[in-house]
Amino acid sequence: MATDVIAPAWLRVPNDANALDARVWPASAHRDDAGELVVGGVAATDLAARYGTPLYVLDEADVRARAAAALEAFGSEARAAGSDAHVYYAGKAFLSAEVARWVVEAGLRIDVASGGELAVALAAGVPAAAIGFHGNNKSDAEIARAVSAGVGSIVLDGRAEVDRVADAAERAGVVQAVRLRVNSGVHAHTHEFLATAHDDQKFGVPLADAPGVVAAIRGRDSLRLLGLHCHIGSQIFDAGGFAESAERLLAVHAELLAGGDVPELNLGGGFGIAYTSADDPTPVDELARGIVAAVAERCAALGIPVPVLAFEPGRSIVGPPGISLYEVGTIKDVPVSGGIRRYVAVDGGMSDNARPALYGADYTVRLASRASDAAPVLVRLAGKHCESGDILVDADYLPGDVRPGDLVAVAATGAYCWALSSNYNLLARPAVVAVTDGEARVIVRGETEADLLARDAGIMEGR
Ligand code: LLP
């Protein structure tokens, strides 16, 4: 096929352009007898008819199962090493009251990174003790709110926050449990990690400074040290970077034990997912085994007990269970050097998924309203924004008879899509619908034109 010349090297022409790779699609995704995509027991055309497009769809049972599997994987490995593990769901990936409750019911805690995320978690009924509060530039109001709500931990991002949080706790008459965020010098992304002595980034303190900051924490009666915290990156496929980072942290952790209790070690989140069939992330139980084994081995070498471990996965809990549904509009075959590129434009775009534009992220697209035997054709799925970088799927294959009015689904959009959404070109944000056991319900209402007008202070009644 002429189009193959312009396809990226990693992309394979599918034997069946209707196939749904189980690693990429929600656990319940399949095609019914008519060939239509069904998620959580609900057909794509039913969802579009009821809620319109674009639409975010979340497989509730898959989110719950992934949350439970993460806790089981890290918990069982940690217990086998004589300790235990806490798993915090990183709410920045996607936070609504329903999702907060699902993950808490699965036994997870929640990591929030702003006053807004804290407010949603509390409003959802998440026990404050199960909340970890993050942020590299927390406001006084955020600190006061977190302390008075009784959050289980605050992750201190630097020396200045020691006194700010200690003072707030003193004023509230409580002892606040805290972690100290450090830079281990390890950065990881997919299969590669890079380890340096120093880090040029805004989060945390250099590992070498940790003992001094911990001494300051221990000097304040209103603070209780839980331990060190580190987050080495996101979309990481194997255990190597975590192991390297943990080993670096444990050397300091052991040093800190000489001065008092250090019950926990938080290794952050960042576990990768498959966005396309070319991605091959390590399953969570294997990751847990690799990471906990490295920790246990280093603790034995240092002659210290294995601390309670904490992790903060976001993407790997909520990413794969989510899809985005769009309706196909304009289709153009554009001559480009080396072939013809078929641009398939849909009714959403970078406002509902900024990740391709922000990070060059790859995604998978399939026909959702029907299956087709037509030969696969390379397509680029574009949005409807006034910007040439408004691309949802840079390259994938759809049946060659794809036409206006078809529904298409983009896989693995549950994390960092709704969370990063905008009103660019004054598009209204789509609704988020949870599907399970053949039932669909809105968990975040979509915006309407009235919502867009409501905040414009220049629009007057009756005009
Ligand atoms: N913990 C901390 C301290 C974090 O900063 C993050 C993500 C996580 C946990 C969760 O990481 P996850 O398991 O979801 O990879 N917007 C980017 C990702 C930014 C991640 C920021 N921090 C994206 O769409 O790829």
Summarize the structure in words:
Pathway: Amino-acid biosynthesis; L-lysine biosynthesis via DAP pathway; L-lysine from DL-2,6-diaminopimelate: step 1/1. The active site is at 386 (proton donor). Homodimer. Residues 322-414 form the Orn/DAP/Arg decarboxylase 2 C-terminal domain. Keywords: Amino-acid biosynthesis, Decarboxylase, Lyase, Lysine biosynthesis, Pyridoxal phosphate. The chain is of the alpha/beta class and 463 residues long. The protein folds into two domains: 4-59 and 320-454, Beta Barrel (Lyase, Ornithine Decarboxylase, Chain A, domain 1); 81-318, Alanine racemase (TIM Barrel). The chain has twelve helices and 24 strands. The protein has helices spanning 44-51, 60-80, 97-105, 115-123, 140-149, 159-172, 210-218, 240-257, 284-302, 315-318, 355-359, 449-454, and strands spanning 30-31, 37-39, 42-43, 55-59, 85-90, 109-112, 131-133, 153-156, 176-183, 186-190, 192-195, 205-206, 223-229, 233-236, 264-266, 308-311, 322-336, 339-346, 365-367, 376-382, 391-399, 407-411, 432-436, 439-444. The strands form four sheets. Strands 4, 17, 18, 19, 20, 21, 22, 23 and 24 form a nine-stranded mixed sheet that branches. Strand 20 and strand 21 form a beta hairpin. Helix 2 runs parallel beside helix 9 (284-302), helix 5 (140-149) crosses helix 6 (159-172) and helix 8 packs parallel to helix 9 (284-302). The model has no long low-confidence stretch (mean pLDDT 96). The chain binds ligand LLP.
